[in-house]
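Re-run requested by the PI after the first attempt was lost when the workstation crashed. Everything re-entered from the original request form. Ligand of interest: zinc ion.
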Amino acid sequence: MPEIPEIASRAAEMNAALAGKKIQFCEILQPKCLNLPVDQFQSAVTGAVIQRVTYHGKWIQAETSQGWLLVNMGMGGEILLVDPVHLPVKHRLIINFSDGTCLSINFWWFGYVHFVTVDELPLHTMTAKLGPNVLDLSESEFSQILKSQKGKLKVFLLDQTKVAGIGNAYIHDILFLAGLHPLRALTSLSDIEIHQLYQGIQNGLLPALKKGGAFYEMNLFGQKGNFQMEDILVGYREGLPCPKCKSSIVKIKTGGTSSFICPTCQPEK
Ligand SMILES: [Zn+2]
């Protein structure tokens, strides 16, 4: 599932490559990914000029001259800038631009392509309910949000309404870098531990972001991300030695999810 390193990379690529392009027409092969009936969606986006592309949580948000195009890749997929004769075999939606290029969107499983006017954006509940992008927060802002919450650490970090952008792939290394067990109670964290957590989030996400995201996702031009399996510290490395203390990494059940931790570096207390 794409998380901040992949989403922020795609948004930056789209911002650089798509700004100024005018949507000529849109082909929709999967109407259920839309928030509007097909004909309404098509007329809403036709003629729109893309102005800038940003992201919020796991949503890519393109501001156009006619409103916001909002894309959520769900479990993953590809957004590719191609010319129409080189369309990928798998696609669910094609946005054709007036310069002859097109954007092909494919979801591996299911995703969303929504269009809202500027006035409707605050009413788009799927994005309006999201907390701030976790990488946009200062340490004191992050600390304030965390201290206003109760419950377990991992559940908090994955709750997109509190802080947005962390998912099930990068969270293992974030918690390992912070030296914190996923089941720690938020109210038990000291200021030093919250500082470690803030650092862990930066150091767990930025290296992947700088590498254009994970190897299993493609960029706008069809190249794979450069963040490789061997760049991962403890995630999905059950039985292998901890990179800090050489203890065996274990996979544990944490509520409805699994977690990979070093039991020595991340004691439950
Ligand atoms: Zn360790």
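Saved to the shared folder this time. The chain has a mean pLDDT of 96.
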